[in-house]
Amino acid sequence: MYKMESELKILSPEPIELQPEPVISVGDDRPLLKSEPNLTQTHILSTEELEKKYAAYVRHDVYGTMGRGELPWTEKILLALGLVLLVPLRVLAGMAILVIYYVICRVCTAFLAPNREDEQEDYAHMGGWRRAVIMQSGRFFARCLLFVFGFYRICERSTGNQVDVQLNHETVTRDQKDNFERPGAIVSNHVSYIDILYHLSSSFPSFVAKRSVAKLPLVGLISKCLGCVYVQRELKSSDVKGVSGVVNQRIWEAHQNEFAPKIMLFPEGTTTNGGYILPFKSGAFLAKAPVLPVILRYPYQRFSPAWDSISGVRHLIFLLCQFVNYIEVMRLPVYQPAEQEKEDPKLYAENVRKLMAHEGNLILSDIGLAEKRAYHAALNGNISMPTVLHQKDD
Questions:
Q1: pLDDT at 134
Q2: In what order do the strands lie in the sheet containing 291-297?
Q3: What letters, b where the CB count within 10 A reaches 16 and e where it falls short, cover 126-160?
Q4: Residue 294: enclosing H or E segment and its boundaries?
Q5: Helices and strands in the chain: count of H runs, count of E runs
Q6: Which of 182-191, 208-217, 301-310 has the least mean pLDDT?
Q7: Is the pLDDT of residue 38 over 50?
Q8: How far apart are CA 93 and CA 63, in angstroms?
Q9: Of 178, 268, 296, 370, whose Cβ has the fewest other Cβ atoms within 10 Å?
């Protein structure tokens, strides 16, 4: 309707019968103006403008935008060798690892009923030898999967000693100090699905996942053993605590009890190309508990492991074709929120984000998931992509 009104304003206010142009009948569905295509040209951005506006999702590797760039002959040869020699072996090895770990989880959960509180279903709070076997074997097999993907070495480093600075040399008991050091959650920048494998191999935390994951073959039981918090967006009943409440409870339990399962959160809500850090969602900071910031980077020479503006299948194939991949990890000190930050989760989230950007040499970006969808739509030739920006970002 708005479009029709704007076109009518351009027409002459004189009566139709006095116009030299032919009269347009009511049933004529032809465009009123021949220059209508120009109306959409303002929405079409050049490649340079797109890359500037959506810089956090732009690929800079040899494979180009969406992994569809023109490759040099040397890269084509390496890609062909990888497809023939690496991909079959790596797929078989990955499936074997997944099946073996599934069997271990099945044995450890035999004759046990999962926890079904708060509309969740998991085995995260099991104890004794069962939990120990699931955790230790899970960390081991996650590292094996990283090896299968070509991550033969992981460069890890930690910075600083937060406790001495924060306590200001006050006298505390050992229990108080341990409680002070213990984070309620691990927060990390999000670059690729490989992030999950690394964190599993490092600390074996729980994650937030879609409820449909719990029903997947093999992966479903494994996710329950991880203690994943499942998202069920269609559930709106008032008698359920909700995902946010469950996450906050898990965070507080992990902060108070060293044996409680840790939880891993990606507060950006989506992946980037690894050089930027997006605005944080405040859900991870509502519990007012300390958090452990972790920064991941993936140096590359040919193909970037970042899962930004490339399809999942194409990304997986190219990643498996890489002979060697690299990952760098920086663990920052446990971040202790000040009283003002505890009262303002958004301030808490923003301060942690700025700290991670400074320490990891990341560029602060103000775009999010809606802009990522818009960028993908533009790359796929959807000229109506600006409407994506008006969609609600969940």
A1: 94
A2: 154-158, 327-331, 291-297, 185-188, 264-265
A3: beeebbeebbebbeebbbbbbbbbbbeeeeeeeee
A4: strand 291-297
A5: 15, 9
A6: 208-217
A7: no
A8: 26
A9: 178
Taking the C-alpha atoms of residue 89 and residue 94, their distance in angstroms, rounded to an integer, is 9
CA angle 377, 383, 387 (to 5 degrees): 70
Per-residue CA distances from 188 to 133, 135, 247 (Å):
26, 20, 16
Say what percent of the chain tops pLDDT 90: 48
More confident call, 48 vs 220? 220
Which amino acid, one-letter code, is at 107? V
Rounded to whole angstroms, how far apart are CA atoms 56 and 271? 9
Which secondary structure element, helix H or strand E, spans residue 95, and what is its range? helix 87-108
For 218-267, write each residue's pLDDT tens digit: 999 999 998 888 876 555 444 445 677 888 888 988 898 888 888 999 99
Chain-centroid distance of CA 104 in Å reads 28
Rounded CA separation 188/200 (Å) = 13
Query: pLDDT tens, 367-384?
Result: 988 899 888 888 887 544
DSSP letters, 185-235, are EEEE----THHHHHHHHHT--B-EEEGGGGGSTTHHHHHHHHTPEEE-TT-
Q: Which residue has the tokens 């920064």?
A: 295
CA dist., res. 344 & res. 347, Å (int): 5
| Predicted local distance difference test score (pLDDT) of residue 25 | 47
Is the CB of residue 236 less than 8 Å from the CB of residue 274? Answer: no
